[in-house]
Amino acid sequence: MRVQRSAVVVSGDGTGVAGHAGSRLLVDLADRLGLTASLGVRPASRRARRSAHDPGWVLRDVAVMLADGGDCLSDLAVLRDQPEVFGPVASHATAWRTLEAVAADEFGVDAVRAARAAARRRAWALAGGPPLVDGLVCVDIDATFVTAHSDKDGAAGTYKGGFGFYPLLAYLDHGDGTGEPLGGVLRPGNAGSNTVLDHDDVLTLVQDQLPVDPHEVPVLVRADSAGASHGFLDALRAQGMLFSVGFGIDVRIRDAVAALPAVAWAPAVTSHGGLRAGAAVAELHGLDLAGYGWPSGTRVIVRREPLHPGAQPSLLDADGNRITCFVTDQPATDLAMLDLRHRGHARVEDRIRTAKDTGLRNLPFADFQRNAVWVELVLVAQDLLAFTQMLCLDGALAVAEPKTLRYRLLHVAARVARHARRRIIRLQASWPWTRQLLAAFRRVHAIPAIC
Fold first, then answer.
1. 3-state class of 107 per DSSP?
2. For 47-105, how does the pLDDT look when each residue is reduced to its tens digit (9 = 90+)?
3. CA nearest 395: which of 176, 181, 179?
4. Which residue has the higher pLDDT, 365 or 13?
5. Which of 136, 161, 206, 344 has the fewest Cβ atoms nearer than 10 Å?
6. Which residues of 239-272 are buried (b: 16+ CB within 10 A; e: fewer)?
7. Mean pLDDT for the stretch of residues 402-412
8. How far are the Cα atoms of 23, 93, 370, 372, 379 from residue 153, in angstroms, in the given order?
9. How does pLDDT run across 133-154, given as a tens digit for each residue?
């Protein structure tokens, strides 16, 4: 039997209805963590503001707009058109002038980064400590291409034939499919993949964001083969951080793999702890890495796995197996665990993908420094989403991607009422996630305000 939808009558006389009401959660969390106030602290060199809007409010609202799914300044209208939920929100022109002031200030981006670091310290304190993976603070560094659809300052051709930018980003891995950004450097599209200075710059940003001492809480920095440079690994060693970095396969590595006895191989494991069919890991000895300038204690861990269907073999593959390897200075003896931990670096691809879904896909300005500020605000937006999941959500929502959070929580509609000089946001009782959203608001409002 075919069921037909009933006819509806549409009228335009509704009052007090607002959309995106759940995004008010991000506004309140930014305020409670002190992020809004810190963003409003102007360096001495920044000119006095002429707008009635506090710079911290403007930057916070831009970050909330990005977390909500916007990708350009004009999308602030989503918040501005609903003052009963979000209060007074700056105009497009005022927001542009605020970002311009930050970009023009020598210390503007540094001030935003300092505000993020202060909010992270408070969030981690409320959460009971840093997110750990196997007892480690795991940091992943990777680069990504951002296409420019017009001629912009700093945009250049990429080695993949595109045109745009090549930012280098660092994320903290929570181990559960989520993570939070620690730093990012905007670079031209023709920037090198394994440039030591760029990796050192990102490492400095990571150090400033991490409220832990690597000598007290072990910090593991993971990267693909772009991070396999003497300078970068020496910098990690100098800071007391461990490394797990992809390593290129050459004839020397291939011959060493071919010479390994069968007993040297240990079965590789999946992320769920089961054996991965046909895959094995081993450690290569006798390569004298220290003699080639690598830090003392550097180990080479190699992995072999049958070629996937359709994969093209290369000259460096052995006996029908794809060979990959990485270098690490971790002292653990469980090779399968070291391999599994290194493969966790792949999760950074999800963090970068969600960053592009949170405003990084298209840098909106013609000026390079303004786009650098935009990248920093994208990281603020990702911070807000990560802190919300860490402090306010449970179950599936605590590990959900931004698109899911937007549909279930942030974009929910509500009715705004007034009673006893208070505004009341009334969520729809029948919405499946109303209970979780209410609980999240209660948790945010239970955070002591910073005086």
1. coil
2. 555 557 899 999 999 999 999 999 999 999 999 999 999 999 999 999 999 999 999 99
3. 176
4. 365
5. 161
6. eebbbbbbbebeeebbebbeebeeebbeebbeee
7. 97
8. 33, 21, 10, 11, 21
9. 999 999 999 999 999 999 999 9
> Which residue, among 130, 232, 226, 133, has the nearest Cα to 182 in the 3D structure?
130
Q: Which amino acid makes up residue 307? A: L
Indicate the SS3 state at residue 326.
Answer: strand
Residue 100's SS3 state is helix
Q: Residues 6 or more apart from 394 whose CB is under 8 A from it?
A: 436, 439
Cα(40)–Cα(25) distance, integer angstroms: 20
Alpha carbon distance 382, 116 (integer Å) = 11
Return d(Cα 160, Cα 136) in angstroms, integer. Answer: 35
Task: List the one residue out of 52, 40, 55, 144 whose CA is nearest residue 100.
Answer: 55
C-alpha distances in Å from residue 62, one per residue of 75, 191, 252, 265: 9, 28, 52, 52
State mean pLDDT over 382-387. 98
Task: Give the pLDDT of residue 322.
Answer: 84
For the ranges 31-35, 44-48, 53-57, the lowest mean pLDDT is seen at 44-48
Long-range contacts (CB closer than 8 Å, 24 or more residues apart) made by 116-119: 116/35, 116/209, 116/379, 116/380, 116/383, 117/208, 117/209, 117/211, 118/34, 118/35, 118/38, 119/30, 119/33, 119/34, 119/35, 119/38, 119/383, 119/387
Q: Whole-angstrom Cα distance, residue 163 to residue 157?
A: 4
pLDDT recorded at residue 46 = 47
| Helical pair 24-32 and 55-67, crossing angle rounded to 10 deg | 130
- Residue 45, pLDDT score: 42
Q: Please state which of the ranges 3-12, 65-74, 290-299 shows the lowest mean pLDDT.
A: 3-12
At 423 the three-state DSSP class reads: strand
Residue 15: predicted pLDDT: 83
More confident residue, 422 or 392: 392
Work out whether strand 242-247 and strand 219-223 pair parallel, antiparallel, or are unpaired. Answer: parallel
The pairing of beta strand 163-165 with beta strand 156-157: antiparallel
Cβ–Cβ under 8 Å, residues 301 and 326: yes
Closest CA to 381 of 241, 197, 223, 180: 180
d(CA 6, CA 312): 55
The reply to whether the predicted model has a pTM over 0.90 is yes
Q: Which amino acid is at 306?
A: P
Phi and psi at residue 423, to the nearest 5°: -90, 135
Q: Which two tokens stand for residue 347?
A: 């999760």
Residue type, 92: H
